[in-house]
Structure to design on (296 residues):
């Protein structure tokens, strides 16, 4: 692996450790997959689509789970490069896509989300600017289902009085409308009143906006403040909670797909399995037959 590629991989893994909370073993697996791929195609940073398309043949003898893992690592790696402006195009269109059982996303139940809001609202009531900002962040993550990159990149005027939606730029630079509740608009309004002036960003930090890494740290701190193990919570977990709780409340799957900005409804359908799993657990624990003595 070239020094330039190694620097890109190191930067990517730093993000995965901070934003996604990956363990050392997971990071080591990512590094190994990326290093092996770099050897296969002669480099990562400057790889062309035709280089990536060769991997299907090169990986033909590998187990489907290994191919899926390596493909996922590459997609995430190049997605990171694009989001951070380190690359303009995504060369992974022809990567192998073996069919595997999709893992269920981690979610929080409504009681846990309420605890996070109660703790955040209590701190914000003091008028502390950081706490006021954090409440606005939480409202937008859970109330609008925004991705971390979408949230931190919001312009200062993204939330306007009387407008129930805000425009966000999602994956692939595609714009979509995301809902914003009246309570979220109120929280953002209070933040704007005391936010540092002179920035084009809604959540400024230094000369730019709040980073995804810092957002991850803020969310985990809010979870700990609410008595929830911080390793269970991340911006993406709150996005999952937004989707699952909407579906539980009767939201249409196509509407949910639009709100989340999913290109493929198959990605959205994972939440039907999450909700089904929750219902089965509820039946097993609460149904009268669950406590019936089988020996009777």
């Amino acid at each position: 692996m070239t020094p330039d590629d190694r620097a890109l991989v190191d930067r990517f893994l730093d993000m995965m450790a901070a934003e996604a909370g990956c363990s050392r073993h997971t990071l080591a697996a990512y590094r190994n997959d990326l290093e092996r791929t770099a050897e296969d195609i002669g480099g990562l940073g400057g790889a062309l689509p035709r280089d990536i398309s060769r991997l299907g043949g090169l990986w033909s003898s590998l187990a489907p789970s290994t191919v899926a893992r390596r493909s996922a690592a590459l997609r995430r790696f190049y997605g990171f490069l694009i989001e951070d402006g380190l690359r303009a195009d995504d060369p992974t269109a022809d990567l192998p896509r073996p069919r595997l059982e999709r893992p269920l996303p981690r979610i929080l139940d409504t009681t846990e989300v309420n605890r996070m809001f109660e703790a955040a609202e209590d701190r914000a009531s003091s008028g502390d600017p950081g706490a006021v900002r954090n409440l606005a962040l939480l409202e937008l993550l859970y109330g609008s289902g925004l991705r971390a990159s979408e949230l931190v990149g919001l312009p200062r005027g993204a939330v306007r009085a009387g407008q129930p939606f805000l425009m966000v730029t999602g994956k692939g630079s595609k714009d979509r409308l995301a809902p914003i509740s009246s309570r979220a608009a109120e929280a953002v309004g209070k933040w704007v009143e005391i936010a540092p002036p002179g920035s084009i960003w809604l959540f400024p930090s230094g000369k730019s906006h709040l980073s995804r890494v810092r957002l991850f740290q803020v969310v985990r701190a809010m979870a700990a403040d609410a008595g929830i193990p911080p390793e269970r919570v991340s911006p993406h977990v709150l996005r999952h909670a937004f989707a699952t709780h909407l579906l539980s409340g009767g939201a249409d799957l196509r509407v949910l797909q639009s709100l989340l900005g999913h290109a493929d409804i198959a990605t959205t359908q994972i939440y039907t399995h999450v909700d089904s799993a929750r219902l089965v657990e509820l039946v097993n624990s609460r149904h009268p037959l669950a406590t019936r003595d089988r020996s009777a």
